Amino acid sequence: MTGPLVDAAGASAGPRAPEEAQRVLDVRGLRKSYGESAVLCGVDLEVRSGEIVSLLGPNGAGKSTFVSIVAGLRRADSGSVTIAGVDAFAQPGAARRMTGLAAQDLAVYPVLSARHNLQLFGELAGLRGRELGTRIGEVARALRIEPLLNRPVGLLSGGQKRRVHTAMALLHRPRLLLLDEATAGADVETRTYLLDVVRELAADGSAVIYSTHYLQEVEMLGASVALLEAGTVIARGSVRELVAGHSTPAVEFRFAGPAPLVVAEPGREGFAECHDDLLRIATPDPAATIAATIPALGEDAGRLRGVEIVRASLETVYLALTGRRYASGGELS
Ligand SMILES: Nc1ncnc2c1ncn2[C@@H]1O[C@H](COP(=O)(O)OP(=O)(O)OP(=O)(O)O)[C@@H](O)[C@H]1O
Ligand SMILES: [Mg+2]
């Protein structure tokens, strides 16, 4: 890590065991309610140096509430947030200097130019003079906003504004980077180089929390997953671990008209279900299930319109755990 602020904050935490030094974020038992409504119900989350954690979950699950409490923008009812050994509730200033946040809602001054926005934010984060100028140049290059630097942010397109907003979070090379739907509304190219920047920061040792509704970004980032549902982390681990632990492949038979509940393989009755024109059989051996099922369809075989093998994936895990449907293009609703 570079930057005097980081060194100062790290030094204030005193000597640490190597394992503890690796743990940049340590959240324990975080609770938050708005009136009667509990939004975070005791969230625990650890993120280590170099790790990217993809924070997934349906609309209203509590992702932005969690991120804004970690960033020091909202107060928790109880629990603790420790950033590189610093108690973020007791020492909010020191914690904030180690944190970069690009919130879901844009926070840019529309009448100021992109450069001026970056300068103001960089100064707030403790950057000065030549170092500030160099970093503005670097992040502007990385996020392709160089041609936009002298234009008022209010006149930029939505995706261009979000790039400026995200650049502000990266300027001081934070030890903890919090990106809340950074690629919402971004075009394909923008998404690609934003993900590059995130990977590079993580490779340099930052810990990253990255909330998204685009599941393909999780694999593109090489991120682990924290799945939040109704204020509780209901799954945590690598994509491989989650897929192995929570999902099996399935075969889907689609019919013209209502699907028949046909189960040819003994013992798999409980693994078959019908939804309208779809017969779905969860199976560890899709080829064997297809071979056994088609001859058993009898007269219904004439109404068969398609057979699809649905491989276990992050999508199927997400659906199994949250019971949600996902829209085309991999964006979850
Ligand atoms: N300031 C507030 N006052 C009252 N309720 C709030 C406030 N902020 C958030 N909520 C509620 O808390 C819940 C969690 O909201 P949050 O924004 O954290 O969800 P999210 O997981 O980020 O959702 P999304 O995917 O839509 O961004 C929602 O039901 C929301 O209505
Ligand atoms: Mg949100």
Tell me about this structure.
The protein is α/β, with parallel strands linked by helices. The chain folds into two domains: 18-243, P-loop containing nucleotide triphosphate hydrolases (Rossmann fold), CATH 3.40.50; 248-311, no CATH class. The chain is built from twelve helices and 14 strands. The chain has helices at residues 4-12, 18-22, 63-70, 92-97, 114-124, 129-142, 158-170, 188-203, 215-221, 239-246, 286-296, 314-322; strands at 23-34, 37-48, 52-56, 78-83, 86-87, 99-102, 176-180, 207-211, 224-229, 232-237, 250-255, 272-275, 278-282, 304-310. A six-stranded mixed β-sheet has the order 6-7-8-3-9-10, sandwiched between helices. Strands 2-1-4-5 form a four-stranded antiparallel β-sheet. A hairpin with a 2-residue loop joins β4 and β5 (86-87). α5 (114-124) packs parallel to α7 (158-170) and α10 packs across α12 (314-322). Residues 34, 39, 57, 59-65, 104 line the site of adenosine-5'-triphosphate.
List keywords for this structure.
26% strand, 12 helices, binds adenosine-5'-triphosphate, 2 domains, single chain, binds magnesium ion, Rossmann fold, 14 strands, six-stranded mixed beta sheet, disordered N terminus, alpha/beta
